[in-house]
Amino acid sequence: MLRIGIDTHTITSHFALPLLIRHPDGLxxxxxxxxxxxxxxxxxxxxxxxxxxxxxxxRMTTAHAYELRPDxxxxxxxxxxxxxxxxxxxxxxxxxxxxxxxxxxxxxxxISESPAYTGRAVTALAADPDVARWSGHVVSxxxxxRVYGFTxxxxxxxxxxxxxVEVQDNNLPADDRGYR
Length: 180
Known about the structure:
Layout: H1 2-20, E1 27-31, H2 36-39, H3 48-68, E2 74-79, H4 86-92, H5 115-127, E3 138-140, H6 141-148, H7 160-166
Parallel strand pairs: 1-2, 2-3
């Protein structure tokens, strides 16, 4: 977990950052799991090493933002929500067009989002001439969707991390109304 969760980010940064600072307005986007607020509590369901790996990416983003500022570059960490990746769709025996069928088995999957949603979040950041306002922060795809106005492939704006805190973590019945 440490090698995958920390070393990969560190090694990539070691080689990529010297290339990035050659161009003003460069942007580093780290991918993580969980907003800063969500990760402030120990993620006991996943365990120490997973928790450490995700918090390390957040801290790395803070450090990169500080160190890249003189080079007019920014560092932002983006967290997707519950992804409808190919592996997840296969695991639940559904496709992108039938993904809601998985909610019969896992009701909270109703808040899931496609990988395209995260891609749209990164694209919006990269196109923002004022991207430096996000530098050093962890932002979610749902948070960025509300700011930049993009949607997921189904036309909704899933807000997974707010849903997790307000619904799933409180053991409430699955209901994505007001969160998509």
